[in-house]
Amino acid sequence: MIIDHPLLGPRDAQEFVYLGDADLINRPDWQAEDAADAFHDYLYLRDNPAGVHRELWYHEQGDRSWLVVTRDTLTHEISKVELARDVARAQGRGR
Amino acid sequence: MKQVNRLSGGLVDRDQVLGFTFDGKRYEGHGGDTLASALLANGVRLMGRSFKYHRPRGVMTAGSEEPDALVELRSGGRQEPNTRATVAELFDGMQARSQNRWPSLRHDMMAVNDRLSNFLTAGFYYKTFMWPKAFWEKLYEPTIRHAAGLGRVSGEDDPDVYDKGFLHCDLLIIGAGPAGLSAALTAGRAGARVILADEDFAFGGRLNAEMFEVGGEAGSDWAKAAVAELASMGNVRLMARTTVVGAFDHGVYGAVERVADHVAAPVEGQPRQVFWRITSKRALLCAGATERPIAFANNDRPGIMMASAVRSFANRWAVAAHETVAVFTNNDDGHRTAADLIAKGVRVTAVIDTRADAPAVEGAELFAGAQVIDSRGRLGLESVRIRTAQGFTRDIVCGALAVSGGWNPNVHLTCHQRGRPQWDETLAAFVPGPDLPVGMLVAGAASGVLSTEGALRTGAEGAVAVLADLGIAATAAVPQAEDAPVDLTPFWHVSESKGRAWIDMQNDVTVKDIKLAHQENFVSVEHLKRYTTLGMATDQGKTSNMGGLAVMAELTGKSIPETGTTMFRPPYTPVSFGALAGRAVGKHFHPVRETPSHNWATERGAVFVEVGDWLRAQWFPQPGETHWRQSVDREVLATRRSVGVCDVTTLGKIDVQGADAAEFLNKVYANAFAKLPVGKVRYGLMLREDGIAYDDGTAARFAEDHFVVTTTTANAVLVYRQMEFARQCLWPDLDVQLISTTEAWAQYAVAGPNSRKLLEKIVDPRFDISNEAFPFMACGEVTICGGLRARLFRISFSGELAYEIAVPTRYGDAMIRALMDEGEAFDVVPYGTEALGVMRIEKGHAAGNELNGTTTALNLGMGRMVSKKKDCIGNTLSERAGLNMADALKLVGVKPVDATQAVKAGGHLMAKEGPVDAAHDQGYVTSAAYSPILESSIGLALLKNGAARLGEVMRIANPLEGDDVEVEIVSAHFVDPDGEKLRV
Amino acid sequence: MGRSCVYKLKAMTALGGTKPRVDVFAGVKISENPDRALVSVSARQGHETVCRERARAFLGVDLPAPARAASSEGFGVLWIGPDAWMVEADHTRHELLASEIKTAVADAGSVVEQTDGWCRFEVEGSKVCDLFERLCNVDVQAMLGDAVVRTSIHHVGCYLWCREAGAAFTVMGPRSSAASLHHALIESAGVVSLD
């Protein structure tokens, strides 16, 4: 596969390491009432759809950016690639 | 030596005479020959024996789809089985041998299988070797293994090198027939970066095998001129002898280039084959089409060939398949073979056309509406029996039968991304479906356009279309050429045949086998394939799958498209393991990482161990030491007695800087770092988010906003990745920057009571490293040996007074030599990873064996380190009830009651009395070593509620090795439990 | 306390020699280069502009955009990641490059000495593109001067810096794998020199 890196352009997927569902960005609040349950769901209940999936890839043999790649797991069509840091900030993550 | 069947003309180089042997007999051929064409030229039709029935076989095709003419080439380490004679370029001195026969090709003992054919039908293995069960391993499997298979390998190492590479282009054109050449000219002239690949050694495809004219000149001449023009373009790369074997995601293709298969041996340093990974923006598949046979009784005799192959041999290689040839066809294309042969003076004894309205033939007898119903000839075709339209039978003398059942477009690569081909009624064949791999277009015969003009036109137009996508303007210029329509009446097999009619030559699957599969309800094509092994041989059924489908469709009363095809998967043709491995063989299988003391350690005779890619000194044998334990015990004792030095460069080092560096470490480590003073080091334990211990190391604070953390050797890459994840994805607004510095510093552990004294001789005098000025867990930047910058850490893995000192790596070799020179006064020893391991077990430090992916901080005796006052990865889930049971495993030491007995890692702890089984398991030994200090075997173990069981006597059961050792449960800290040595 | 260490420690090249190694093939020359100091600079969050300005003032050149390098009189700079660069300079004159740069960018940047983390080979000649197309999945033919990619050569992560299109490249790889990287380079150089 070829991943169109937002900064570096098209790069071969072999340069990347795959992690999984991009929801791993949404780490729960450790001080919440239901923290244990929330962490359980965060860690163990991730989506693995046959179809469009937002997932985390790490450009290990490249610039070390974590990316959020929107990919159709059936066709491998990649419709969007974003810097995970931008996604994380947009989803309200900060310090 | 006379080449009895060599004709005039053709594209062979008659000035070049090449000698070769087949089964030891000498023959001659010409430059441009394949082994198959040269054998035919010499009148050799019998080339091999079939896989199952050991039937005599000859060559059936003239290309890579060949199922039958498989030979062994070369000898020794270069011996290569199952080479298709049709694609083996002849070279002087070639040694070829037939396969799958004993004692000789003409007299094969295993031909008895042919008589047993009623027994060896579809599903034979499944039905026969079911019982008794025990026979499988001892009798059936070895016997089958002996009887089956085709060629042999020598078992010697392949002496050749193989390579890989990566190419990039705007347009990859797969196949250099009329469509491919036309596309390449169009794209090349437009300035696009083009790769044109063809499996053949001569570009031109069917243009070299037909007598058609293109633009008023011979097709082969046109091809030659096109190639010359393309070769002159800097933007076009011509890759002959290169098979594109797979279409992968997003325009990536795999291709095998046979660099030196056409010579006896590569020149020194030249790879035999190269596996290219081609990244294309667009691809044009011009892979042509494959002619398919018609099945009839005994249709597998040497001499029965595809009509197009007979034509190729005559036109391109100037070889008559035999002196007398008959043609059996269901379409006009078969007539071309007759016409071309007659023009070359070959005697065509009959044209048998299944169509009642077959066109007239000049120079041969035509049997319209007739069928071939049987053949004769033990080791080669002598005659065929036909049934005429009027219902009479007649025998026709012929040494070769040219069969044409129509053409199948080579859709294989269009299906590598889940695409399914679609049925074309006119061609009675599958053509590429709508779901092509991204960026691919198909032209020429591969797309179902079977005329020469059509191929030239669709090739050029295809190139214009894909280049337009890329914003490159191109113009199609198509020369005049043959444009005959396809006239074909589908005809798959002669149903009245009495004998066996072969569908799959290579796997010996007959029409009868398909009928049996149907009768036993294996009707889905995927079941049919696996039950009968149709299409599962090395040729992947290129000439047989369609016939099999047609027969099954007939039996089930469905249409062929309803019956469907099996999946086409890469590779298109077989790929050698060598090409896939490339240069990653032997000691270059993976890269090696060498420590800064590597050369020095090699001089000292160190024994190395691989840790990941690293080579680390395991121990340093001294003269007279004959067992590794002697070396390791000596290194441990000398270190504990005085001082030892160990290269610890391999530990991962990550530089962490930024205003929020401390805050960041607080989040990635279970324990707290915010309050660590500058100039101090702290042990850190990292958890996974599920609360399981992940890695450990140290963090040294060099400034308020600057830490250097260490990871274990094995986890350096993973920890860095995880820290980047935390930095970019979890806490993106923390001001923290990371970079690895593992390799920038040569780092040595200097351990033992005299370590300070040794370092005082190295560290420049202006730095006070006394116990008061530089206490346990201190760190700082110093200079050594008169000004060289260095980092000093007072940390200990051995439990001794110890330091780690780091210098720029280029000085690492000099540094170890300086430490050894200066340490002579203290009898310094270098120690390796074994002694390091022994000392850490003696000290009770957890390492990889304990941080094994199942243990928590609590298990490791570090439960209280996990801060409850801050958020960090893993702390919430580390509090799960299941991980905090009263009888949770705890790290303890184990020591045999009888000091002569040895503890082994992996043994399980059981009550001293009582059953030894899983239900009574109390824990297990994680690490074990012989402690030369304690003069006893010792171990670390994880034991249920272990902390409360010190003093208990238990047994370690190791049923696998039959061990049963009584041990006492003790503290994991065998040496200096209070840590006094560390602080002096 | 006897402090007797008076000799100067001798540096060794990444390939373990006292002199840099040079290998010459028809069409390719591969030279080990131990003479460049390397330092990474990462902008601190919120100080990106200041970091760039201070770096430019010191280096005499703008910090380059992604996948690019830039050079001034005495320095070269490579982009290595978002808001991160590698600066290089002559090692003899700038052995303490890290402190020089830290002084220049101060609290606007994180600065880390990288000199000995890397081995470095200068690869030049008419066959360089043929060489690298056998080693890494990079469209080297399309690389123009001062294009930089990080890629993998025989599983070793490397920077590939085009010095002159189609003619000269700098390869930097992890120092501990210098021997493996060098082996890969000379093996492929041997092959391409045959053509």
Automatic annotation (TrEMBL), chain A:
Domain of life: Bacteria
Gene Ontology biological process terms in this record: tetrahydrofolate metabolic process
Gene3D superfamilies: Folate-binding superfamily
Pfam hit, one: SoxD
UniProt GO molecular function: sarcosine oxidase activity
Protein name (record): Sarcosine oxidase subunit delta
Record lineage: Bacteria, Pseudomonadati, Pseudomonadota, Alphaproteobacteria, Rhodobacterales
UniProtKB/TrEMBL annotation, chain B:
InterPro entries according to UniProt: 2Fe-2S-bd_N, FAD-dep_OxRdtase_2_FAD-bd, FAD/NAD-bd_sf, GcvT/YgfZ/DmdA, GcvT/YgfZ_C, GcvT_C, GCVT_N, Sarcosine_oxidase_asu
Domain (GCVT N-terminal): residue spans on this chain: 598-870
Domain of life: Bacteria
Every FAD-dependent oxidoreductase 2 FAD-binding domain range: 170-207
Keywords: Flavoprotein, Oxidoreductase
GO molecular function: sarcosine oxidase activity
Pfam family, one: SO_alpha_A3
Domain Aminomethyltransferase C-terminal: 890-976
Domain SoxA A3: 498-583
GO biological process, any: tetrahydrofolate metabolic process
PANTHER family: AMINOMETHYLTRANSFERASE, AMINOMETHYLTRANSFERASE, MITOCHONDRIAL
Family: Belongs to the GcvT family.
Designated name of the protein: N-methylglutamate dehydrogenase subunit C
Native organism: Shimia abyssi
TrEMBL record, chain C:
InterPro entries for the chain: TrmE/GcvT-like
Name this protein carries in UniProt: Sarcosine oxidase subunit gamma
Phylogenetic classification of the source organism: Bacteria, Pseudomonadati, Pseudomonadota, Alphaproteobacteria, Rhodobacterales
